[in-house]
Amino acid sequence: DIVLTQSPALAVSLGQRATISCRASQSVSISRYNLMHWYQQKPGQQPKLLIYRASNLASGIPARFSGSGSGTDFTLTINPVQADDIATYYCQQSRESPNTFGAGTKLELK
Amino acid sequence: EVQLVESGGGLVQPGRSMKLSCAASGFTFSDYYMAWVRQAPKKGLEWVASISYEGSSTYYGDSVKGRFTISRDNAKSTLYLQMNSLRSEDTATYYCARQEGGQLGNWFAYWGQGTLVTVSS
Predict the structure, then answer these.
(1) Disulfide engineering: B47 pairs with which of A9, A99, A104, B52, CB 3.0-4.6 Å?
(2) Residues of A whose CB is below 8 A from B59
(3) Residues from chain A contacting residue B105 (CB–CB below 8 Å)
(4) Are strands B45-51 and B58-60 parallel, antiparallel or unpaired?
(5) Are residues A100 and B47 in contact, defined by beta-carbon separation less than 8 angstroms?
(6) Of residues A35 and B101, more confidently modeled
(7) CB neighbours of A63 closer than 8 A, spacing ≥ 6?
(8) Testing the interface with B: which of A4, A6, A42, A46 to mutate, by most B Cβ within 10 A?
(9) What is the pLDDT of residue B87?
């Protein structure tokens, strides 16, 4: 299985940039498609899709969220961070079955 | 508006069975693959199973293969998960999700609110 590694937590100040990383144990890219996706989950709520195929913003997601990366290294950027963005963020790969998720990065206020 | 509403969770003893349902609305159910994803208490997300448009193809995670069965009724816009031989490690919130992307990768675009399954004696 492809293992996705995320830092457990990231502390950020409101109005600043947050950069959340996800590293895969092997490439999750096929041709020009980068099969990494990002989700936001707030306490007591279901996950919400933010970014699909590494850099495509999901419907209704604010433009302060963006994604980048290819191969094994991917980044979710939130700029500027707002209070409503405090949550846990998960990456997910679909290059190989089974789909796997990272353990999540908890975004905290500094 | 896309809505996914899970039901059927609760407390069940180890070794017993339970069936979850997910009622879908706001979209043409048969046009999408569907999936179950679970989350153990205070833990991360784990993909459980997926099913094709008409239900002819099903896919399972290794931890549930041979014990769980995913199915769907397109006439009722409902997704199911039959869980047999339940174990304590199956304790989790189970989410129903609409899967998108097809051959070029797949992701979970919409999620239900989840239903909690607790396996304990």
Answers:
(1) A99
(2) 97
(3) 30, 33, 35, 37, 52-53, 94-95
(4) antiparallel
(5) yes
(6) A35
(7) A57
(8) A46
(9) 98
Residue B115, pLDDT score: 98
Q: What is the pLDDT of residues A13-61, one digit of tens each?
A: 999 999 999 999 999 999 889 999 999 999 999 999 999 999 999 999 9
Rg value, chain A, Cα: 13
Q: In Å, how far is B105's CA from the nearest CA of chain A?
A: 5
Which pLDDT score is estimated for B116? 98
Beta carbons within 10 angstroms of residue B31's beta carbon: 9
Min distance A13 CA to chain B CA atoms (Å): 25
Length of chain A: 110
Span B14-47, pLDDT tens digits: 999 999 999 999 999 999 999 999 999 999 999 9
Cβ distance B72 to B53 under 8 Å? no
Q: Is A26 left (phi over 0), alpha (psi -120 to 50) or beta?
A: beta
A30, A58, A94: residue with CB nearest B106: A94
For tokens 């590293």, the residue is A23
